[in-house]
Design goal:
The longest helix is centred in the N-terminal third of the chain and has 18 residues. By secondary structure, the protein is mostly helical. The chain is 70% helix and 0% strand.
């Protein structure tokens, strides 16, 4: 499950870099603005309540 979320995160980052302010940010710039681990952990908590840390 973690691998799937990590891949989905990468795809979302790529798409967001194109959409946020019409491509103002590169993927690497967006990665500095968000916490990937926190986002993936929150997603796991929503998908698997009670099983994630």
């Amino acid at each position: 499950m973690l691998e799937i979320l990590a891949e989905a995160y990468l795809n979302a980052s790529n798409k967001a870099s194109l959409e946020v302010e019409e491509g103002r940010y590169e993927v690497q710039e967006l990665e500095k603005l968000v916490n990937q681990e926190e986002i993936i952990n929150r997603a796991l908590a929503l998908i698997l309540p009670g099983e994630s840390s």
